[in-house]
Amino acid sequence: MSTINSIAGASTADLLQQKSKLNGANPAGGSAFADQLKSALNEVNEFQEEKTQAVADIATGQVKDLHQAALAIGKAETSMQLMLEIRNKALSAYKELGRTQL
Questions:
Q1: Quick one: pLDDT at residue 9?
Q2: 100, CA 20 to 30 Å: which among 33, 52, 73, 93?
Q3: pLDDT tens string 55-70
Q4: For residue 67, what is the enclosing H or E element?
């Protein structure tokens, strides 16, 4: 029983100090994640636009380099699959948090 009594609870000041260390230079915390997510979504969108242009060029016969067009299409498909997997994992984590009992 003395072991349990000897464990001191963390003070609010200690917890805030640990939080500021984890956040580093970004005091907003979640905004860094949101910025990263927006950046990734914009990148996937750019790949999709390049793919659309490449497919249109192939369809109209205006493609200059078939290899580059095929790479653009593959890059867009891969980035979209990755984004969908990230979304699925995030939804799964959200559902798991919803099932967690407090």
A1: 57
A2: 33
A3: 999 999 998 889 999 9
A4: helix 66-99
